[in-house]
TrEMBL record:
Lineage of the organism: Eukaryota, Sar, Alveolata, Ciliophora, Intramacronucleata
Location in or out of the cell: Cytoplasm, Cytoskeleton
Domain of life: Eukaryota
CC terms in the record's Gene Ontology section: myosin II complex
Entry-linked CDD domains: EFh
Gene Ontology molecular function: calcium ion binding
Function: Plays a fundamental role in microtubule organizing center structure and function. Component of the infraciliary lattice (ICL) and the ciliary basal bodies.
Name of this chain's protein: Calmodulin
């Protein structure tokens, strides 16, 4: 992954994907009930760029409609899309960790707050300083002003 695309990959694309899932869900939620018929699932996932077979759609329906009520909500769709994307790109976590390691000048698996800030403010879709500060101040990610690359990558992968 190119350095200039790192922040786009991490934040912009994820937010756009979530917005797209929400938008398509709302198009099919014709009565604004927060539920969509399972009969629409194949069409919805295809509109999102996934290309399941009919057998795969049947399996997806089983995953989103655990109670057998014939419909599913936005959360079930988001979870399904996240799962399918991970299946389609099983190397995504490794690729993300490798991309972050580009900025790890001393190759210790940690990014200093300054390395992280520089990368996020100068490469690709630039983050605002307050956004970076929120990440740097997250006690689960930062230890001694160092961001744990694998922990940060895991956080990002869970957002997808």
């Amino acid at each position: 992954m190119a350095r200039k695309n790192l922040t786009t990959y991490l934040f912009v694309d994820i937010d756009l994907q979530r917005a797209e899932v929400r938008e398509i869900f709302e198009l099919f939620d014709k009565n604004s009930s927060g539920r969509v018929s399972v009969s629409e699932l194949g069409t919805i996932v295809r509109a999102l760029g996934l290309n399941p077979t009919e057998a795969e759609v049947i399996e997806m329906i089983k995953k989103v409609d655990l109670q057998g009520i014939g419909s599913f909500g936005l959360k079930q769709l988001e979870d399904l899309v996240k799962e399918k994307e991970k299946e389609n790109n099983p190397n995504a976590f490794k690729e993300l960790v490798d991309a972050l390691r580009v900025f790890d000048s001393d190759k210790d698996g940690l990014l200093s707050a300054e390395e992280f800030k520089h990368a996020m403010m100068t490469m690709g879709e630039k983050m605002q300083e307050y956004e970076i500060d929120e990440i740097v101040n997250d006690s689960d990610l930062v230890q001694n002003k160092q961001i744990k690359i694998e922990t940060f990558a895991q956080l990002i992968m869970n957002r997808v």
